[in-house]
Every structure is written in C-alpha cells, then in structure tokens.
Specification:
about 30% strand
Amino acid sequence: MHTSIFKWMRLGMVLLLGFLTIGPFSSTQAAVAQSSGPSVGMVCTTSSSPNPTFNLDAKPGYIFTADGNTMFMWSYSVTNGAFQYPGPVLCVNQGDTVTVILHNSLPERVSIMFPGQENVQANGASAQPEFLGAGGILSSLTNSAVTGGTVTYSFVANNPGTFIYESGTDPKKQVEMGLASALVVRPTLGATFVYNRADTQFTQGEEFIAILTEIDPYLHQSVEVGKTNFNMNNYHPRYWLLNGRGFPDTVADNFASWLPAQPYGALALIHPFNNTAAPGDPAYHPYPGVERFVNLGTEDFPFHPHGQNGLVIGRDGHALEGVGGEDLSMEKFAVNVGPGQTWDVLFRWYDAEQYADTDNHRVTVAPPDLVNLTVGMFSSGSPYLGTKGVLPPGVQTLNQCGEYYIISHNHALFQLDAWGQTMAGPITYLRVDPPQPNTCP
C-alpha cells in the first residue's frame, strides 16, 4: 500500500474522532536493523549463518498510539540503530550457533531469555538465575546486565519454528514495558518452509507476523518519572497493539515515515490460490501464505481473520504431528493465542465462485440501492476482483486495482480500543490482489 495514502487516512481519522531487505552480513559484523525493505510482510533482522551475531541495546523511547497519544516504552533495538518497538524480529537457520550481545542503557538490570532454546550460555557459562545475596530473593530468571553493562548469550537453534525472546528480569514489569520480541528459526528444508515437513511450504513473499502486546499507561508513566513502587495489583491495560501499532496505523506500510519507532505493519497481501495453472505461468500460485502469531501480553488474544479459516501447523516452535510424524494440524476459525504462546498458521484465499464481469460469471443478486448502502473506504465500486467500478459522487476510495479487503481483528472486542477510542487496537486487513500479471502498485 502507498504510505502516503495511510498517512492521510490516519490523520483524517484522528481529526474525525476529535483527538487532539534482508541480506547477508559477514560473520564478524553484527546485524543491523532494516530501515527499508518490503512494504508488506514480515521483516527479518539477520546476520550471517552459521554463526549469526546480534548486538541489541535495551533502551527507552516513545511510540504513537491510535488516539493521538504518545507512550514511553522500553525495547530491544539494534545497537547504534534507532529505538524501535517491538524489538527486531531475529531470523536464523536451524543449526546456527546464535550469539546475542545485550547492552543495557536502562536504569535497572535487564536480561534476555530464549524460551524453547536449549543450553543457553551467558558469558560462556550456563545461564543461571540470579539472587539477591546468598540464599536471597530471586532477582532475575537468567544472567542480567547492570546499567551500562553487557552480557553475551549464545545457543544452538536446534528446532525450527516461531519463538519469543524476552527479559527474564522482573518480567511482569519489563516485558510489559516492551522488552520482548520474536525469534524465527528457518528449517533445514528451506526458507519457504515453516517446519521440516513438505506440507508446511508457503509462498515466498507471503510471510506475515502478528506480534500482540498490551500497555497499561499508568505503569509506563510511573516508570517514565522514575517511580519504583507501581502496584502491579492495579495493573490494567488500556491499549492493545498489533506489531506495536493500533488501527489504522496497522495497515500502513512497514517503515511508515510518520511512525519512526514502530517499523512493522500488519497488512497481509496475497494472491488467489491457484494450483491448476502451469508452473512458470504468472498466475501459478500453488502454496499458501503463513502468519506467525506471537502473544507477548498477559491476556488471551482470540484473533479472527475473516473470510478464510487457517490451518494451524505449529505451536510454540513445535510442529503439530504425532510420534510417527502423522499430520495433526487443525483448521481454526479463530486463533486463540494465549500469553507467551506462538502459533504458526497457513492460509489460502480461493476465488471459489469465480465471479467476473462477464455474462457467464456475473453476480446474479441485484446490489442494494445507494440510499440503503454505505460505501466503504476500501471499495472498488465493483464486486469483481480486479475490476474498478463507478463510485457515487463525492466518495473517495483507497482501492488501487480492484483488490479485495477482508478484515482481520481480535475477537475480544474490548481490546479493540485505545483508552476509550473504539475501533483501534489489533485490527488489520487481508488484501487479496488479482492474479498476476496485474496492474496493482
């Protein structure tokens, strides 16, 4: 989608509501955050395989919220890079020896845990919990770095799938403040597979991620002004975010210029599933897309992508299969992602009715009279994929080439909110473009 379109869309909605490349690196060079790349889809931060090294800073910054507010945050960001929330999505290959060097720029000890990874090392020894003095109170679930300090973690990424990484130091506070993100381990079968199963292949360029988080603004304000006595019994989220953004910013491009600290969009863009065209034909589209759901919050996120069911093929970095390798994947109408969970979901869009603006494939139901119809901002003015029709006078559209838009949103409707502003939060769209070749931007 064109970023300029959604910049004005966001500004218009705020005023209306009355508020206020992924590439290789040398083995000795730490990965750097991408500031450009695909406008839609998951963006990886990478380093060279088989020994990738990531330098991350734990530091403070600010983000914009859908109600026109700003919010003080903590997050992991690439060293010497700009603050970003959520932290970079780290992508590695199965079998890699992964090194993550954490630099702490925050006023208290912080750390990183890697749930699902085995034999994690910290500064060359097995990562261990930390206590306040001999036999004292547990202060961190893993080795931490003092303010201005550094700790180096390493592990072998033995298993493919989607995982989280998060602070193990005072996690009820630090994870909510933003110290968490996603780790994707590519299988040995190839970068277009989720697991080492042939039936987990997806279309290159149709890989998406949905990182679900929440914010209690009173906790964040307390941390911002240096108070240390926030009562977590009073914890109550007022914002719920998708890839660090609330709707409508969620459907803006990756790296939208007006969201400098929130680089990841959440729009999914696919083409109709087609396994009947011959390989090499531009319309040949035999594999599904994949969405990686990651819940970094404390509440369930029952995410509902309208218009198509998803095939759940893995959870928490484990393929859904039996002891003998039999397929245990399941189709779901809504994906209920629990706190700390990850779900890997394949999805397709079929042009089942094959409606077209021809005599043999027309929609036979008469459309409602315009006086009884509200034309949405994504309408093409036509019911046919790839066709733009005539819109009523004065109606403006964001539709570019007759594409379809199907809403995807969280089904816990109270979470579609930004501190009282409704129709915000974890909402996005699935955009279905016409079969290729087409004239879509």
